[in-house]
Write a structure and sequence with these properties.
Blueprint: E1 6-13, H1 17-24, E2 30-35, E3 41-48, H2 54-68, E4 75-79, H3 85-92, E5 96-98, E6 101-104, E7 117-120, H4 133-145, E8 153-157, H5 163-172, E9 175-180, H6 183-195, E10 202-206, H7 213-217, E11 221-227, H8 230-235, H9 237-243, E12 244-256, H10 260-268, E13 272-280, E14 283-290
């Protein structure tokens, strides 16, 4: 029998969403934010596969409220009835048009408009369905890069569902390698590659950072994607710069606007400069290029 899921609900003003997403999203199996007609507050809906500690939830919400400068919101945490919530979410999620890409579930297979590139992603425990601002901004950045040149060697660090690796592989008609510290995410990324007809072109492995033998063997990479969080992005500045081909590009995301200076400072020290910036709901995707090199 399927274990019950747990649902956390709370309402916050839209400017406060990034703070709450950042502090609640790491532990949740799924997290969605929704505008509510007729109300100023947005609804945050987080789903957990195991019952979370209420004290930890309360601490995270209090910290997020303090970071956002708002009163601590009222919240509820309840067990959901034993239903196939993932399948229901899949049926209710409409396709997304994100730059040159059309992100959809299996139930919307065959709906990709002419001129867009279809990416089939199912709701799952892996991060990266295109619904979060960071994933959406990364997809838009990849699409914009494709207007200028083709990238042949792609690395997706912290690949989650594999959506960014698949987007690059389809857009540039090339192969892409993803890596993630979570075994579940790697399994999901491989399953998504199969569903998108990309077996043999998109693969993923369990790795912490860029030190794995297979990642080193693929160097240098023309395009490195990293949609994680500000702290690991900062720590990876040197390994990413060493793995990047001359004239290559790096797309970084998972950071808030308030963390941009910290991240850019780390990459400036290793010879990478800001080339473009995309912002969505307080989150950023940054495109970096080597200094003094043309491509």
């Amino acid at each position: 029998m399927q274990k019950p899921l747990w649902q956390l609900l709370l309402e916050v003003p839209r400017p406060a969403l990034p703070a709450f997403e950042g502090l609640l999203g790491d532990e949740a199996s799924a997290l969605a934010t929704m505008e509510q007609p007729g109300k100023a507050e947005w609804l945050i809906d987080a789903i957990y596969e195991e019952e979370p500690a209420r004290a930890a939830i309360a601490a995270a919400i209090t910290a997020a409220a303090e970071a956002a400068g708002i009163p601590v919101p009222v919240w509820s945490l309840e067990s959901l009835a034993q239903r196939d919530w993932v399948s229901e979410n899949q049926r209710n999620l409409a396709p997304l048009a994100l730059g040159r890409f059309w992100v959809h579930g299996e139930h919307d297979r065959g709906t990709t408009p002419v001129g867009r590139i279809g990416l089939e992603i199912e709701a799952s425990i892996a991060f990266g369905t295109g619904r979060h601002a960071t994933t959406a901004a990364c997809l838009e950045a990849i699409g914009a890069l494709g207007l200028k040149r083709r990238y042949r060697r792609v690395l997706d660090v912290g690949c989650g569902s594999g959506v960014l690796a698949m987007a690059a592989a389809k857009l540039f008609a090339t192969s892409a390698l993803g890596c993630d510290i979570d075994e579940g995410s790697v399994r999901v990324a491989r399953a998504n590659a199969r569903a998108n007809g990309l077996l043999g072109r998109v693969d993923a492995l369990v790795a912490d950072g860029l030190s794995a033998r297979r990642i080193k063997a693929g160097r240098p990479y023309d395009l490195i994607l990293a949609n994680i969080l500000a702290r690991p992005l900062t720590k990876l500045a040197m390994p990413i710069s060493r793995a990047l081909a001359p004239g290559g590009r790096v797309v970084l995301s998972g950071l808030l606007a308030s963390q941009e200076r910290q991240v850019l400072g780390a990459y400036a020290l290793v010879g990478l400069k800001l080339e473009a910036r995309r912002a969505r709901d307080g989150w950023l995707a940054l495109v970096l290029a080597p200094r003094n090199r043309r491509a």
